[in-house]
Write a structure and sequence with these properties.
Blueprint (H helix, E strand, L loop, with lengths): L1 E4 L2 H11 L10 E4 L1 H5 L3 E5 L12 H4 L2 H14 L5 E4 L2 H13 L4 E4 L11 H8 L2 E4 L14 E4 L21 E5 L4 H21 L4 E6 L13 E4 L1 H5 L4 E5 L2 H8 L4 E5 L3 H10 L7 H6 L6 E3 L4 H11 L2 H15 L6 H10 L5
Parallel strand pairs: 1-2, 1-4, 2-3, 4-5, 5-6, 6-7, 8-9, 8-11, 9-10, 11-12, 12-13
Helix pairs in contact: 1-14, 4-5, 5-6, 7-12, 9-13
């Protein structure tokens, strides 16, 4: 099987599903990140060398895309995999799917592009590029009705229910988790503001403890200056009282942990200007998208550390308890438990017996 992932979240998602496949009869290679490589996947290309963030930020990755396409095309012709499994990163992976389908290799794409947020016409491109699309959100399969592609809701592994592992006693200091993202461009855009927001909140709550989530694709040295470092998001948020999180998959992980949070994001100004014309969804944080309402505060592009700190301070009070309950209930409906097994089963069904 040929696997192609594009960033840290997709790499972790693929590695989790791979755990439930029969490795004894399956050779896997392709574009792999650290998590897949740790599972023994041979990396013809490293996923972290191909990542981007927005319409402008991906320009650096685009120049590497032809080499990636040529490498995967060569593998499709010479290695002849039984299946191409692409994960997220539609800009590259849907092109790879088209290459596979033209060669008679079945293609399964995991993570539907956010057609409900922008460019809904992409459903037709997905149908041309994949035999099946595995959707992480329950409302996504309906977008593919009548396109000819098989679309199934498999659940969102990021919504695995963790529950609150700690009840803080009276007088015990509160914990803030910071999760500024998994890509260098995200860190550059968000970390200075996240760090200042934590300092602003600490001025309100001098006893505040801060934990910083360090993604495997990021050097901890870039996240210095406030708090202690934790390896991975869940290690940082599982016993936190509140979190400041880059809008994306991490917002669902916070919801699953029952941690109220503030979502924030910033991209290149040109990306922002173009995106405002294209994006249809009124929300960026996935729990808000799924709920269809503003469950948690979200701030985009124009980020003021004092405003972020004020929102975080409110969530440290009774308002945060109510938000945490609603987030936990929402996450439970996303079928996080068993999602990796369902993804593995969908892949197995398309592999030769």
């Amino acid at each position: 099987m040929l696997v192609c992932v594009g960033e840290a979240s997709g790499d972790r998602l693929a590695a989790s599903a791979l755990e439930h496949l029969d490795a004894s009869r399956l050779a896997v290679r392709g574009i792999a990140g650290p998590a897949l490589r740790a599972r023994g996947v041979h990396a013809d290309l490293r996923a972290e060398d191909l990542g981007g963030v927005g319409l402008v930020e991906v320009l650096g990755a685009i120049r590497r895309a032809p080499a990636a396409l040529a490498r995967i095309a060569h593998l499709l012709d010479t290695w002849r995999p039984d299946l191409l499994w692409t994960v997220d990163n539609p800009g590259l992976n849907l092109r790879l799917g088209s290459l596979a389908k033209r060669r008679g290799v079945p293609a399964v794409h995991l993570v539907s592009p956010q057609v409900w947020a922008w460019r809904p016409g992409r459903v037709r491109r997905v149908a041309r590029s994949a035999d099946a699309v595995l959707c992480l959100l329950p409302f996504e399969p309906a977008w593919y009705a009548g396109t000819g592609v098989v679309a199934d809701f498999v659940g969102h592994p990021a919504a695995w229910p963790l529950g609150r592992s700690r009840v803080r006693g009276d007088g015990e200091p509160p914990v803030l988790a910071l999760a500024p993202g998994s890509r260098p461009a995200e860190i550059a855009a968000l970390w200075p503001t996240f760090r200042e927001a934590a300092r602003a909140l600490r001025r309100r709550r001098p006893d505040l403890r801060v934990r910083v989530a360090v993604a495997p694709t990021v050097s901890g040295e870039t996240l210095a200056g406030v708090g202690t470092l934790r390896a991975g998001l869940r290690a940082a948020v599982v016993d936190a009282d509140v979190a400041l999180v880059a809008a994306g998959t991490a917002t669902l992980e916070c919801a699953a942990a029952g941690v109220p949070f503030v979502a924030a994001y910033r991209v290149h100004p040109l990306t922002w200007a173009l995106g405002r014309r294209l994006v249809r969804s009124p929300f960026a944080a996935l729990p808000n998208v799924v709920a269809g309402e503003r469950l948690v505060p979200e701030h985009l592009q124009h980020l003021d550390p004092e405003v972020l700190a004020a929102d975080l301070a409110r969530l440290l009070g009774s308002e945060g308890d109510a938000v945490a309950r609603r987030l936990s209930a929402l996450a439970a409906g996303l079928r996080g438990e068993g999602a990796s097994e369902r993804i593995a089963a969908a892949l197995t069904a398309r592999l030769p017996g």
